[in-house]
Amino acid sequence: MRFSLALVCLALSAAPRDLKPDFAGRSGSALLFDLETNALAGVWNLPRANTTPFRPGSVLKPFTLAAYIEAGLYRQSDKAPERLAYSDNEYFDKLATRMDKEDLTRGYARFGLNQQATTTTLANLLAAARRLIARSREERLRPVFDGMEQAVEYGTARLAAVSSTQVAGKTGTMRDSAVFLGYAPASRPRYILLIHLDSGSGGGDAAPFAAKIFASLFSTAAPPDDPKSVSIRLFWQNPPSRLNLKPGHYPAGTPIEANTSRLNAPGPLTVALRDGHYLLTTQVPLEAYVAAVLEGEAAAFQHPASLEAMAIAARTYAAHFRVRNARRHPEEGFDYCDTTHCQDARFTATKHQPLLDAVQATEAELLWFNGQPAAAYYHADSGGWLEASSDAPYLLQRRDPWWQDTPASRWTWTIKATQLAQALNLTFITQNFRVRDKDTSGRARSLDVFGHPAEAASFRMAIGRTMGWEKLPSRLFEVKREGAMLTFTGRGRGHGIGMPQNSAEAMAAKGKTREQILAEYYPGTRISPAASGLSWRSLKSPRITLYTTNLTRDKALLAEADRELPLLEALTGFKVNPTLRVFPTREAFRDATGISTKVQGATRGRDIKLPPNPSLATLRHELLHAILESNTKISHPEWFREGLVQALLNEKSPESDRAAKLIYLHGKKHTISYWINGLP
Ligand SMILES: [Zn+2]
Ligand SMILES: [Zn+2]
Question: What is the mean predicted confidence (pLDDT) over 576-603?
Answer without folding.
Answer: 75
